[in-house]
Amino acid sequence: MFCTLMMAMSDPIAVVAILIALIAGGGIGGVVAAKKASKKGFDEGVAHRKMEAEAAIGSAEKEAERIRTAAEKEAGDRKKAALVEAKDEIFKLRFEAERELKDRRAEMSRQERRVQQKEENLDKKADQYERREEALQEKMHAADARLAEAEAAKKAGAEELEKLKKSQLDMLERISEFSREQAREYLLTQVDADLTHEKALKITAFEQQVKTGCDEIARRHVALAIAKCAAEQVSEVAVSVVPLPNDEMKGRIIGREGRNIRTLETLTGVDLIIDDTPEAITLSCFDPVRREVARLALEKLIVDGRIHPASIEEKVDKARREVEKRIKQEGERAILETNVHGLNPELVRLLGRLTFRTSYRQNVLNHSIEVAMLSGILASELGVDANMARRAGLLHDIGKALTAEIEGSHVAIGVDVCRKYKESNEIIHAIEAHHNDVEPKTVIACIVQAADAISAARPGARSENIDSYIKRLQKLEEICTSYEGVEKCFAMQAGREVRVMVKPEIINDEKMILVARQIAKQIEDEMEYPGQIKVNLIRESRAVEVAK
């Protein structure tokens, strides 16, 4: 029975029939009946499936035949389209080839016409050149003939001129009562006088030309030196102000019956100004080193808080040592920046003292360093010893370090100090001549003088109060307006230029040069100023008419 079931499993209908027979409870007989039924159903299913397969095969063959027919038809259509396209392409290519050939033939025709035309032009020009050459030959023959005639006429005229000259000389001798030798001597004397005047004019013009060229070269060198040495300019104050944490500190600094302030003033030599200024004390002293010592000591006392004579003396000593150390460091810095070596240690210390010295609120040490650098640059451009120029520029204001201790000008003090420490005569002369105390005799002295003026005249390098500034401008305008023919004058560019408007009917163009020189000379004689003042005269003629 199991085998029967397994055989019937291959047919679903048989399986279903067997299961129904089992469920119905027919037993073995039912199974046998079911088996027969399932076999009959199996045979029917096979026959049905065979019919379906044959029908499918027939439909597939019909579909394949239809597809093949459609493909053949499509292939035929594509072949016809391809043939049409190929024919169109061949036609287009043939048309383009014919058109290109036609264009090339037209271009060749144009080129041939151009070449033919150029040949015709060349033939015409050749003919013209031949005609011109023939005409030129004819003119040359005519010119040779005229030249021969002119030579003959010249020879005849020379003979006639010689006769006329001889007769004129005889007549002159009779009229002037001079012999030929006397007349020659007189003419030579007149010619010599005329030549002397001409030589003077040419020498003056040459001197003016040389001066103009030298001025241009000098401006170029000065501008180059200024561009290469761009120094920072900061105006410094001549007094020191020490800030306080509160106003009660003023009483502690004064001390009982003023003993603290007296001790501090005695030890430092500085005046302490304690006024109504809130939380500040002003230190005043002509010696900047003493003022710096007092400032440092006072700041240390304020920080420490213990203010009495013993601590004041201790802090002053400590501040003095710090200042001396800073002086040495600043002097060494100046030597390194300027590349000037071999200075006496005492000169190095004096250079360091200049860091606390100001001139018109310009720091003298920074000014000296700048002058040294400018001098070196100018000396290099002029082919002079740059090391010597830098050394002279660095030491030119060394006397200002001792002006508070020694009487005399800083120039004289600087000369004595440098002579004491065995500086060369050229350096000493440059120091002595940088303010025209003596006439500059060396190129180094002139370079240091120019570099000093450049550094002092930089915008912002030196400051002055508003009153002296206004007085200087007023003085400039007064000098200019004192001349006859001056209509207006204006001081410009912080007093470095003055523009003078003159009346054209009184001062002509030639007189303008003389008036400008006179104004500049009077400014040099009567005023003191850093740098230069440019006097610019302007003469303008106007014609005014009113149309009615």
Give the topology.
Layout: H1 2-8, H2 12-24, H3 27-176, H4 180-228, E1 240-243, H5 248-254, H6 259-268, E2 271-273, E3 280-284, H7 288-304, H8 309-338, H9 345-353, E4 358-359, E5 362-363, H10 364-382, H11 386-395, H12 410-420, H13 425-433, H14 443-457, H15 466-481, E6 486-492, E7 497-502, H16 509-526, E8 534-539
Helix pairs in contact: 2-3, 4-10, 6-8, 7-8, 8-9, 10-11, 10-14, 11-13, 11-14, 12-13, 13-14
Quick take:
By secondary structure, this protein is mainly α. The protein is 71% helix and 6% strand.
Kindly describe this structure.
Helix content is 71%, strand content 6%. It has 16 helices and eight strands. A three-stranded antiparallel sheet has the order 1-3-2, with helices on one face. Helix 2 packs antiparallel against helix 3 and helix 7 packs across helix 8. The termini are far apart.
